[in-house]
Design a protein that fits this description.
The complex is a heterodimer of chains A (237) and B (359). Chain A has ten helices and seven strands. With 237 residues, chain A is an alpha/beta fold. Chain A folds into two domains: 88 residues; 143 residues, OB fold (Dihydrolipoamide Acetyltransferase, E2P). A five-stranded mixed barrel of chain A has the order 2-3-4-6-5. In chain A, strand 3 and strand 4 form a beta hairpin. In chain A, helix 1 packs antiparallel against helix 3 and helix 1 packs parallel to helix 4. The radius of gyration of chain A is 24 Å and the shape is elongated. Chain B is an all-alpha fold and 359 residues long. Chain B has one domain. Helix content of chain B is 70%, strand content 0%. The chains are: A alpha/beta (237), B mainly alpha (359). At the A-B interface, helix 1, helix 3, helix 4, helix 5 and helix 6 of A face helix 1, helix 2, helix 10, helix 11 and helix 13 of B.
Chain lengths: 237, 359
């Protein structure tokens, strides 16, 4: 009976966690899972509640393995829940950025060099600001050269860059935070005070080609830099 | 003595433990305690300023993977329970046992009907084995199911911007390797020497509950459903702890090992393939998610290396290795892992030289 109670407790704890994530703590869920997969959490909660009902109905049934051998396996199932507090205060930062994109800066610069060189030298000055998604601008900078753009991102000053430049980065996820990949663009702050490492910034400015050490890449000439709170969806999709 | 199906509380008697299971139980117990100690240590280290960022990133990865994988495993357990109670043994025998070759060929593509990821496939395999599915066919489904399925095809297509070559090559290679491993290992192993003692006994008793004898009489749908759910819940508890340990290790690797480590070692094509295989084993990604990681290496690594990552990951990684310990004998695991690693490497090398710019 104790084993069955333990099983019911474990399923109850996970069902509560999943329900809490889905119904109450969606900002936390947004830092774990792509929104198109949130149905999984709901499905998990439903299955767990069904299993919980079954476990409670079988509360007096004996189990195959005695509890003295199986209790570590049951406790292991609760280990992830012990990390919830740690996870809530943690964030992916510049260290994660560096770990997951060791040669990204060089690669991006090379790719963008090919793209920008094809741009006309006299790119028309399009005065209308565009509110494009981060990923659209980073993936196709040529289309936006000369335009005013507005991005929300985290700041990373990098010693390989000139003093007045920094990296503006976000993480893109396809399924969950474990597959988060950094995407970024360079920003010239043009006299604005340097942003703190990993601070969230709203960058407004014009996208232009820029050459450093023989490499040409897209860069935002910032017209304004504003500190912002972390958005409810820190990842981009 | 004929055992009757009586799903009542009073008649329930759990399957007795196999006589030779004592060592396995003790080992699992010790490993479990060891893991709990490590988890506690990591949790405490996370309170110190030096390790807080690392443990914080690890916590995000750990919980993200758990929140994504656990529902799949629960759904897999549910499917397993339904198979156990509702799929008749006669059907299983007809499909899988008449001809060894046909059984393996069908099983390799069964993911098209049961689209399960590698976390969910293990509870399903347990149930299929208990239904009498031959070892080779079960292996073919275990390896092929998480690749040859519509969800994985769709995610791979999306990751590669709807270029169909990677999708076709991934599913084709996955099916080929699953069938070859199923045929090879099906000749050397069977349920007597290929499965753990606990699974062997479950297989010989049907579902492992003494009161069960599905098919001998016709109980009501409600009691059958209740029984299927009971099996499903038991299936979840049989493999859930392995998923937690595997995910914990994967989260640690994902947080502590920089991609730079892998990039520095890249050189010849075979090195790229071997390193992407190593990454597949260490990163423990879900087969429905790994295509996006592989696609991020476009332009950096040859297609064969990207494909090696996508084909090997759903067949073998750290998390699966731990799940395999709950299913197969140690000898079978060694043979399975060796066969999968060798075949993936050889297939990808062949592909590299035959179709160097396949996508």
């Amino acid at each position: 009976m104790i084993t069955r109670l333990l099983q019911a407790g474990i399923m109850g704890a996970w069902a509560t966690f999943f329900t809490w994530l889905f119904a109450v703590e969606q900002p936390t869920l947004a830092r774990l899972l792509h929104p198109r997969l949130w149905w999984l959490v709901l499905a998990g909660a439903v299955v767990l509640l069904i299993f919980l009902g079954v476990a409670l109905r079988r509360i007096k049934m004996p189990t195959a393995q005695p509890l003295r051998w199986s209790w570590p396996a049951y406790l292991i199932l609760l280990v992830p829940l012990c990390f919830v507090g740690q996870m809530q205060s943690a964030r992916f930062d510049s260290q994660t950025f560096r770990d997951r994109s060791p040669s990204a800066i060089e690669t991006m610069a090379t790719v963008q060099e090919q793209e920008i060189q094809q741009a006309t030298p006299e790119t028309p000055d399009i005065a209308t600001p565009v509110e494009e998604s981060f990923i659209q601008i980073v993936q196709d900078p040529q289309r936006h050269v000369g335009r005013r753009v507005e991005l929300l991102c985290q700041a990373l000053p990098d010693t390989r860059l000139p003093d007045d430049q920094f990296i503006c980065y976000r993480f893109r996820i396809n399924c969950c935070a474990a597959d988060a990949q950094p995407v970024f663009i360079f920003v010239n702050r043009q006299g604005s005070p340097p942003p703190a490492k990993d601070a969230w910034m709203r960058v407004k400015g014009r996208l232009s080609p820029h050459t450093v050490n023989g490499l040409t890449f897209a860069l935002i000439q910032a017209e304004s830099l504003q500190s912002e709170a972390e958005p409810s969806f820190p990842f981009i999709f | 003595m004929k055992i009757q199906y009586r799903p009542s509380l009073s008649s329930y008697q759990p399957a007795p433990l196999p006589e030779n299971s004592s060592l396995t139980l003790e080992l699992s117990w010790v490993m479990g305690l060891l893991f709990l100690a490590v988890a506690l240590l990591v949790l405490l280290l996370g309170q110190t300023p030096v390790y807080r960022p690392l443990v914080g990133a690890m916590s995000i990865n750990f919980l993200a993977m758990m929140v994504e994988a656990l529902p799949f495993m629960l759904i897999g357990s549910l499917v397993g329970g339904v198979i156990e109670v509702f799929v008749p043994v006669a059907w299983v025998e007809r499909v899988f046992q008449r001809r060894h070759l046909r059984g393996v060929l069908v099983a390799g593509a069964m993911g098209l009907v049961f689209p399960v990821c590698e976390c969910a496939v293990v509870p399903v395999i347990r149930r299929l084995l208990s239904k009498g599915v031959p070892f080779g066919a079960a292996l073919a489904f275990l390896l092929g199911g998480p690749i040859v399925n519509p969800l994985v095809a769709a995610s791979t297509a999306v990751a590669y911007s709807f270029t169909w070559h990677p999708v076709a090559l991934r599913l084709g290679c996955g099916y080929l390797i699953a069938v070859v491993v199923g045929l090879l290992l099906g000749r050397w192993f069977n349920r007597d020497n290929g499965l753990t003692a606990a699974i062997q006994q479950t297989a010989s008793l049907g579902c492992g509950h003494i009161h069960c004898d599905h098919g001998n009489d016709k109980p009501g749908l409600k009691s059958q459903l209740f029984h299927a759910l009971g099996h499903a819940a038991d299936g979840f508890f049989s493999v859930g702890s392995y998923l937690v340990i595997g995910t914990f290790i994967a989260a640690f690797v994902r947080s502590a090992v920089s991609l730079e480590v892998f990039n520095q070692l890249l050189g010849a094509p075979w090195q790229a393939i071997v390193l992407m295989m190593a990454m597949a084993v260490l990163l423990n990604l879900c087969s429905e998610a790994d295509a996006f990681i592989a696609a991020s290496f476009r332009g950096l690594l040859p297609p064969s290396a990207q494909l090696a990552f996508m084909v090997l990951g759903p067949m073998f990684d750290l998390k699966l290795l731990l799940l395999y310990f709950g299913l197969f004998s140690k000898r079978a695991i060694v043979c399975l892992v060796s066969a999968v690693l060798s075949l993936v490497l050889l297939t990808m090398l062949a592909l590299h030289y035959l179709l160097p710019n396949s996508f």
